[in-house]
Amino acid sequence: MANPQQKTDFTTKFVLAISVVVLLVTVIFLVTRLINVIDQARAPAEPSTSAQAMVEERIRPIGRVVSADVDAQAVAAPRTAADIYRGVCAACHDTGAAGAPRKGDEAEWRTRMGQGFDTVLSHAINGFNAMPARGGDPSLSDDDMRQVVAYLLTESGIRVNGAAASAPAAAPAAAPAAAAPAPAAAPTATAAAGDATAGQAKFASCAACHGAQGQGMGIFPKLAGTAPERIAELLKKYRAGEQVGPQTALMAPNATGLSDQDIADLAAFVGTL
């Protein structure tokens, strides 16, 4: 039979063990709650500079609309038919290049007019033989072409009813300027420092035969991809009257009035095509 004192010691130890366990569980629970409260009270961390930049890049608008007054003086004045002729058509119709009828050749133009004005206009709009559509300037409208054809006929001594040759035509996107077309291949030479922006304006008349992007049209060679040095070398030879190739007769009259700077600017622009 067990001793009463022993029973008391056992009961005491058991109660003490249970109390210790309960105490530990209570402490762990309280510590956990305290940690949660601290985390909730802590302010969220600021994102890093690089992460913020990435977010701004993703949500940045791809464009915007700006409304502003237009300065009337800054708007380019519309070109007349004569302006368009000088910038687009003169390279061929002043020289007779590639069989083009010359301005002022009344007999030749009367022969063409035997088909009717509408047919001559259709050839100018859609292209005919070596002449590219719209003279190589796709920005010209049908009305622009009507005005230019009427102007050319009037200058050749043929009156055209219903088409005012001197009326202004809508301004095209490309800036007009007189320059000479350039060949696609040439010997190597060192070009003077040129301004490609200035050369772009001078290239307007070259585009009439070689295309707005220098892609070449008909018998006129491609210029895009040609080294600026080669362009400058050939233009100088054309200007000097040297016989360079089968296109010399077409190019020489247009290169005669070019300065060294004009040639350098044209070569620099062609190098960007």
From TrEMBL:
Kindly indicate whether the keyword Transferase belongs to this entry: no
Question: Coiled-coil annotation: which residues?
Answer: none
- Give the residue spans that cross the bilayer: 14-35
Supply the InterPro entries for this chain.
Answer: Cyt_c-like_dom, Cyt_c-like_dom_sf, Cyt_CIE
Domain called Cytochrome c: residue spans = 76-156, 194-273
GO MF entries: electron transfer activity; heme binding; iron ion binding
The record's keywords, sorted A to Z, are:
Electron transport, Heme, Iron, Membrane, Metal-binding, Transmembrane, Transmembrane helix, Transport
Does the keyword Electron transport feature in the UniProt annotation? yes
How is this protein named in the record?
Answer: Cytochrome c class I
